[in-house]
Hints:
- The structure is a single chain.
- The protein is of the alpha/beta class.
- The chain has a single domain, classed as Rossmann fold (3-Layer(aba) Sandwich), CATH 3.40.50.
- 42% of the residues lie in helices and 12% in strands.
- The chain has a 7-stranded parallel beta sheet with strand order 3-2-1-4-5-6-7, sandwiched between helices.
- Strand 4, helix 4 and strand 5 form a beta-alpha-beta unit.
- Helix 1 packs parallel to helix 2.
- The chain starts with 8 loop residues before the first strand and ends in a 12-residue tail after the last helix.
Amino acid sequence: MTGALSGRVALVAGATRGAGRGIAVQLGASGATVYCTGRSTRSHKSEMNRPETIEETAALVDAAGGRGIAVQVDHLDPQQVRALVERIEREQGRLNILVNDIFGATKIEWNKTVWESDLEYGLHQLRLAIDTHAITSHFAIPLLLEAPGGLVVEVNDGTTEYNATTYRNSFFYDLAKAGVQRMGFALAHELGTRGATAVTLTPGWLRSEAMLDAFGVTEANWRDALKFQPHFAISESPSFVGRAVAALAQDPQLSLWNGQSLSSGQLATFYGFTDLDGSRPDAWRYLVEVQDRGKPADTTGYR
């Protein structure tokens, strides 16, 4: 896919780490210019208090073959987002791809009811998950619509089908992910008649920097974590969902996906790309057919 997106301009909002970083780098690998935004820089850490920075992401985009531009932005601040989009228009004159991958919640209270949860932080979590995406879309989409064929990706956790019947571990997290899903649905209705496409996209069990740290492993030896959690065998690198976005952005029939809830595993089967290890993990099918049914971990036929 090298060079296929040369001349295209992308904004990956929330590119500091995880799926956002993976998407930014893979868009760069296809030749795109990628604005990598987030709150964590070399001189300032966000509330997540992690070491990853947007400058690192931009450098990885450059190394992959694209052009990475790091811009510190708090996507809860409308004026900062407005200034970001004005800068993109001034410097590039266009925006072809918008990826909303902003979240950054630090305290997800798993298995707590609404009345047991920390209300102040629960509401903050909703702002991080929903307000950031809405603010960014408000300012960025008018620029994206100036040229036909634009793509908006709402990055979520879970497909519409899975989330519709599965309680996502806590009131506020469940609501946050339902909100992102609905934003993708609404944007598809608003963009479809205007020459652009909106989708919701979920990675599977992501080997993000934080997840690897939680298991005490690295990307190089991630399988050592299987002794703690055997189902981690279905996990995928952030590059996998990145390749999904790059494949979508290159598809001349992109509009056929408008309004759909997609997964990285589903798109890998359709477009033929693989994860870094050459496999195609289909995490959401595995989750339903193996993990949620209490079966022993076995990825045969799922990657």
